[in-house]
Amino acid sequence: MSSESEEQQLSKKAAKKEAAKLEKMRRRQEAAALASAASSLSVEEEDPYSSNYGDVTLPELKSCSKPDAGNWSMAISSMDWTRVGALTQELKEKEVLIRGRVHTTRPVSKNMAFVVVRERGFTVQCLVATHEAGVSRQMVKFVAALNRESIIDAIGMVSVPGNPIKGTTQQVEIHVRKLYCVNKAMPTLPINVEDAARSDAEIEAALQAGDKLPRVNQDTRLNFRVLDFRTPANQGIFRIQCQVGTIFRQFLLSEGFVEIHTPKLIAGSSEGGSAVFKLDYKGQPACLAQSPQLHKQMAICGDFGRVFEVGPVFRAEDSYTHRHLCEFTGLDVEMEIKKHYSEVMDIVDRLFVTMFDSLNEKCRKELEAVGKQYPFEPLKYKPKTLRLTFEEGIQMLKDAGVEVDPLGDLNTESERKLGQLVLEKYDTEFYILHRYPLAVRPFYTMPCYDNALYSNSFDVFIRGEEIISGAQRVHVPEFLVERAQACGIDVNTISTYIDSFRYGAPPHGGFGVGLERVVMLFCALGNIRKTSLYPRDPQRIAP
């Protein structure tokens, strides 16, 4: 290679190096310009409006009752709070005080910045500009520098812009005159709420357009659950869950049920088997209750007539599925039966139809928020719930070419297939399947009067998945001992339970359902960890 060509190659390399250096410098300058769009003022410059913004002091946050304890205390002392979700056009030209998180900030210039404030899933755009009375450049700088997810209080006038506001739930704007930071969030968060709130459809659409948006996976969400809770979908999910619990209580109380609270530390196991969390109880073997089953039956023997409970249930099964947890919230019911175990199914029918109607009526915004991130079709159900016998269900499966054991339990695939067949034939995704084979039910289940191979029991299904299990119980003590022994249970560990039936016990039955599973299937979320506040499965015991 000639010296001339070597020189040319070197000069090309030097030029590339110099160009890369200049590009790097340009990017740094751009970043610096963006970060300081509203911050080129001298810190030493005095601000006559400094009392209108800033960090709330610790003494003020100690529930100090003095209105003159600080700038923040004086500013809010005579004002009422307005929820972000209540900010509507009817409040035009009214001064309001709001609290929320910094969702985003957008500095426009030294004289103007926007901040979107979020409270419980609702968002509103706030304008901080020096043309407003009491707003200085230093205040604009302070607002522009706020970290996302910090908690702020803002006072300002409600304005209705001429054009629709994109990206916020509320179609009004707050012209801020005072703003205080109540608590700062870290500058860099483990996950961004904006990323966690993104739907799969949005991510896929961006990929098609050549952009790659961050996807927050399930484990990362659960590791930083506090941040994950803040998405509109999660705000909706757990408010829907609250409504499920509320309707469960209200309906049963209106039907003459009494709420009870049974122990979760028990001797032996509540349903038999090895899937229990064992522990030492002051030198005695004990376990966490798999169910309130035995104690709620004892309550019926104690003349409460009709009882229910909302409480934790523990299962030590190594189930790594989308619908199983080691701890969940159980909704349990037990009641006297006057004549037929269908009385229990009647309660299930009316309770859940009432619940579904209430969710569709009272949780529209929450369901919409969930559906935006996790699209789903509304649940199909009938005013009077469909009931099929187990034998009828087996026949439907056989007619569809699915071979199942007529005296065995249905596996997950068979349940889903039956749900599909029921939807096609009866146009419902919520139905009751009753008269299950006795061999697949717990020891305390009453056999059918006309065929001892079957039992007075039932399961309830939503979208092809089992959600409720119930039955008439054995209330004759001698027969109960016989059934327990047949199922391999040491009767000495449940002697108190059996003895309670020796004092006179009415015919009775009941059912149990998992709260998390109700919400998961109603919203077709596909994974029970989405509807458990802090899931406990075989691999997770924190946070």
UniProtKB/TrEMBL annotation:
InterPro entries: Aa-tRNA-synt_II (IPR004364), aa-tRNA-synth_II (IPR006195), aa-tRNA-synth_II/BPL/LPL (IPR045864), Asp-tRNA_synthase_2 (IPR004523), Asp/Asn-tRNA-synth_IIb (IPR002312), NA-bd_OB-fold (IPR012340). It catalyses: tRNA(Asp) + L-aspartate + ATP = L-aspartyl-tRNA(Asp) + AMP + diphosphate. GO terms for cellular component: aminoacyl-tRNA synthetase multienzyme complex; cytosol. Its main location: cytoplasm. Pfam families: tRNA-synt_2. It comes from the Eukaryota. Residues 238-535 form the Aminoacyl-transfer RNA synthetases class-II family profile domain. Keywords: Aminoacyl-tRNA synthetase, ATP-binding, Cytoplasm, Ligase, Nucleotide-binding, Protein biosynthesis. GO terms for biological process: aspartyl-tRNA aminoacylation. Its EC number is 6.1.1.12. The keyword Transferase does not apply. Residues 1-29 are annotated as: Disordered. It is found in: Cytoplasm. GO terms for molecular function: aspartate-tRNA ligase activity; ATP binding; RNA binding. Belongs to the class-II aminoacyl-tRNA synthetase family. Type 2 subfamily. NCBIfam families: aspS_nondisc, PRK05159.1. This is aspartate--tRNA ligase. The lineage of its organism: Eukaryota, Viridiplantae, Streptophyta, Embryophyta, Tracheophyta.
